[in-house]
Amino acid sequence: MGAMSRVRVIVLNSALGPLDYRPPKDAAVAPGSIVVAPLGPRQLVGVVWEAERLPAEEVEAKRLRPLLHAYDVPPIAAPLRRLVEWTADYYLAPLASVLRMTLPSSSALDGARTVIEYRATGEVPGRMTPQREQALERIAGRQGLVRELALAADVSDGVIRGLVKAGAIAAVEVSVEDPFPVPDPAYAPPDLSEAQDTAATELRAAVADGGFAPFLLDGVTGSGKTEVYFEAVAEALRQGRQCLVLLPEIALTEPFLKRFSARFGTEPVAWHSGLRQSQRRRAWRAIASGDARVVVGARSSLFLPYRDLGLIVVDEAHETSFKQEDGVQYHARDVAVMRAKLEAIPVILASATPAIESRQMAEAGVYRELKLPARYGCATLPDIAAVDLIADPPPRGRWLAPSLVAAIDETLERDEQALLFLNRRGYAPLTLCRACGHRFQCPNCTAWMVEHRLTARLACHHCGHVMPPPRACPECNEENSLVPCGPGVERIADEVAALFPDARTAIVTSDTIWSPAKAAEFVGRMEAGDIDIVIGTQLVTKGYHFPNLTLVGVVDADLGLSGGDLRAAERSFQQISQVSGRAGRGEKLGRVFVQTHEPKAPVIAALVSGDAEGFYAAETEARRDAAMPPFGRLAGIIVSSEDLNAATETARLIGRTAPSVDQMAVFGPAPAPLAMLRGRHRQRLLVHAARSLDVQDVIRDWLGKLDWPRTVRVAVDVDPYSFL
Ligand code: ADP
Ligand code: ZN
């Protein structure tokens, strides 16, 4: 058989392996071509692959069906095809699931230049209903497909279509071919400090030279890491190549866009889950054609088919949100390094608190470490003090110690801003009945229902289950007997309001900042001085730069340590360092108060004394002694089913058949700490192996031989970050 008469295709269906087809009648295809393949009566999008790299079922030539169509878009290039293979292999995921991340929806693949979207005309419909009213109110200035507007307004598609008929919403034609403006590397380059210049020079050279070059850009908060990696971006732009900047959180995109455009004269192309379909389509096509020169995005932007990528930056590289926890469970930081290797380009991991994994790579000489030891300009690092909650306790039923309250008072006196950090959304993490002790638990999960007063609901933070707060206890029927236990940010906001009735406060969590537009609004209010005290979760710990923010209070520094997983201490250290880094970024000195019951705990002691190196050294030693990552390897196996018995039996079967392999141990099965999640019972096993062992191969072989009921899901989490 000649190459032209048979092509191998990965179709976007993770239950299917590679399939063979005949080429389409009207077009030539090569590896990487994006095609439409017939499957029974269905049509699936797929990508042509090198036949020699993937085995497929043998099908006689005369039984092969022809591909229906090849899209007129650039093929998926070889380095990205290798990345797809590597990711599937390393994370034990189906090729099709990884491949899907490189492609947009099929509508973006066809050649149409325009899309019809809808927006409100301002016209009032002749017949108004509550649903129509709600729809018009909620979509306000929005524009999008009927489906998108319906989702935004929380009404059915029919309501939107009705409003179109009534003339209150009209169609607009949107071009998806409008070119993106090109950032200008010479627009507003900064005067770099000496340390910044040294780092920037090295990065520019690496970009100009090309070739794989991983960097760890390790600089304290406010040292100008962003300014420095912008110089690498500028160099890539001068070379006419594309850049990708990965950010951990969509909420960070908006301030980043502003900052980028101050440096380069125009915004970069953003890629995140909040894009409308037409924006997504325009961005994807520009990325594939090479017209999108700088892309800033969440982790999913890592798999896009850049035509000529010259640089990847992973900002806040220590963030655990780079780890994807559903579907393909990959770590975007690690995949970014692999993509850079396959594309033969530099990659910069930027962080003020690099992960032990990354530091280790630097120490081993694999990553080149660039240090920025001081804050830029006259800003200095804030003073961190521990507040001993036993010696200096808050009054009963309150959470802020007198010394922190006094510091807030002084800050407000000086017209400066304060930030209180507590990594707990809502009002109270637990609600119980004073009469009978009943606790409100999620019916679908092993988790308490969290009270949210702002929306008057109890909510499960794992599955999203919500209920109105009942007036009486469902167990004992006692009325008004329910009491909130412990604080969330809303409760701290109440306390602040009682203490400082004139202060203007803002709560910053994923409940209040759920879109880039909301983030922009918050940043605007902070910059304008319209907020005195911010009360926020981890969402405020990173990225933001508010020169007038001079006080940070960490409400409960012990919270992160209670989980007790492998990285608990490291994560606490990072989180508190990061939130501390929000204080005193301008000319004014910053102060940080860390409330704790254990001021002597190593994490707290290291933060107070500023001895990051000592802390990291001790943590690294402990990991080395226990052969934990990065000195050893872990993989979680999570077995889940709605049927408790099936989950338990399958987990036992997996445990029983664990191969005995040198330098590998299997722990469990045992019920997961989150024993039930979204109505599924969960069991976990943990595989611990030496670094030299190809643990994926062992697991693939082991699980590949087993059968379990269709109702059971078995997920393998390679290099896990969650142990719940
Ligand atoms: P990091 O990313 O390390 O936290 P940033 O890049 O955000 O630090 O820099 C902190 C602040 O200092 C920002 O407002 C930035 O614009 C400013 N800055 C840093 N370096 C320079 C420079 N060389 N010239 C002018 N401003 C700078
Ligand atoms: Zn739940």
Automatic annotation (TrEMBL):
Cofactor: Zn(2+)
SMART domains, per the entry: DEXDc
Binding site for Zn(2+) 2: 442, 445, 460, 463
Enzyme class: isomerase
InterPro entries linked: DEAD/DEAH_box_helicase_dom, Helicase_ATP-bd, P-loop_NTPase, PriA, PriA_3primeBD, PriA_3primeBD_sf, PriA_C, PriA_CRR
Ranges for domain Helicase ATP-binding: 206-372
The protein's role, per its UniProt record: Initiates the restart of stalled replication forks, which reloads the replicative helicase on sites other than the origin of replication. Recognizes and binds to abandoned replication forks and remodels them to uncover a helicase loading site. Promotes assembly of the primosome at these replication forks.
Protein name as annotated: Replication restart protein PriA
Organism: Allosphingosinicella indica
